[in-house]
């Protein structure tokens, strides 16, 4: 199948995407699900190619693997775990069994506990030493940070609760800058860590506790914990009533649907948080029920496979024309690159295909004034994923949103159509250029075009729509991983650096020895010490 797809690419790569537009292409390469619309017509995928891609997914048993995941089978084989973040949003679905026990009562109880706590904080029934909580500081990293840190600005129009701040980096600058100006007496700290052992989070949590201790008599009373590790949270001094637990079948980067989303619930309230879950559940249903040809996560994933594995484009840009999704690219970097940045199959065999494109991006229109030069005229092709709402939340600034939309649509058209030499030459000739100067100036203004993009469109960014978008990308990662035969749910690649950092810890201390370290590292340790005068 791969050979066939690569042969198709070799044969079709020079044709113009624009020429594929017949009367039905827009309809054929557009999928709608509960108001979310995915357009992949501006790619070099035609009906036959799409059929081949669907056949590839079918041959790899992706639909069966999907059903196994939703049924609670232990598809995360290297960690011997089920993969059930979907259970966290299975609001009105049936039971889901793991090891013979239905997980849904526990999921619902935790959601109710989160709602009660959020309501108490928001109403002032739960208070800090100085009265009603005004600020929430979420301390976590990776999957215990990026989801809520992305969703908080995304849902700003719905946030009427306490202000939220997100501390992740072990760099003291992060904690210091976020705590600056906050009143410890009215601040609630959430320590979010699935394992409750992550070095960065534990160090930040201890330092935040010291900060609170200076002013608050019972600092732990203004701390809550979000974790799967009950013993560790108790050892930290946080009583069980303020510990929000989840199970090992929720992966860190898939965890914002449960207690890791507590800061979001505190900001927008339980009702809007539930709407976010409903959006995720709506996408789950679509993913499970829509025929593969009309299935949005399949289409997004197969477009990704076509561009990365078949065409060989090594990166993809996520370009939200939605300023409030400014952290979405960072969120997707973890979701996609930590899930699928791998080189061996589930059975441990080296893969002969590249897996896991580099994901990057910035919100439009900012990116246009920064890196779009390369996207339009650089030699490498960067498939672009545009995300845009039909309207904004600011009726008095509706003309801004129309300008935003026009820019988004202009970019995808410009990428596809480009501008040929004749047009550039005519343009410069009009300006009076002739001869060599005309040629040189015209060449600068040539756009090869034929650069693929997709567009994801919705009416307005609501909690429901955000839920749909995040679940869509989660399932895209699943489909891409399943096609490649890898485990998208482990992350062994982050371990080696952590182990070495532990070994280096004592060496960077004042009188620490560099003995036994690699010479290249030892030299840098010594230099850093000399620089700080140690
Ligand atoms: O939630 P925690 O246990 O603190 O883990 C935080 C993060 O650190 C790890 O290194 C993993 O790479 C991430 O997948 C995880 O989300």
Automatic annotation (TrEMBL):
GO terms for biological process: gluconeogenesis; glucose 6-phosphate metabolic process; glycolytic process. GO terms for cellular component: cytosol. InterPro entries: G6P_Isomerase (IPR001672), G6P_Isomerase_C (IPR023096), Phosphoglucose_isomerase_CS (IPR018189), SIS_dom_sf (IPR046348), SIS_PGI_1 (IPR035476), SIS_PGI_2 (IPR035482). Its main location: cytoplasm. GO terms for molecular function: carbohydrate derivative binding; glucose-6-phosphate isomerase activity; monosaccharide binding. The keyword ATP-binding does not apply. CDD domains: SIS_PGI_1, SIS_PGI_2. It holds the Pfam family PGI. SUPFAM superfamilies: SIS domain (SSF53697). It is found in: Cytoplasm. It catalyses: alpha-D-glucose 6-phosphate = beta-D-fructose 6-phosphate. The active site is at 338 (proton donor), 369, 498. It comes from the Bacteria. Keywords: Cytoplasm, Gluconeogenesis, Glycolysis, Isomerase. Pathway: Carbohydrate degradation; glycolysis; D-glyceraldehyde 3-phosphate and glycerone phosphate from D-glucose: step 2/4; Carbohydrate biosynthesis; gluconeogenesis. Its EC number is 5.3.1.9. Belongs to the GPI family. Catalyzes the reversible isomerization of glucose-6-phosphate to fructose-6-phosphate. This is Glucose-6-phosphate isomerase. The lineage of its organism: Bacteria, Pseudomonadati, Pseudomonadota, Alphaproteobacteria, Rhodobacterales.
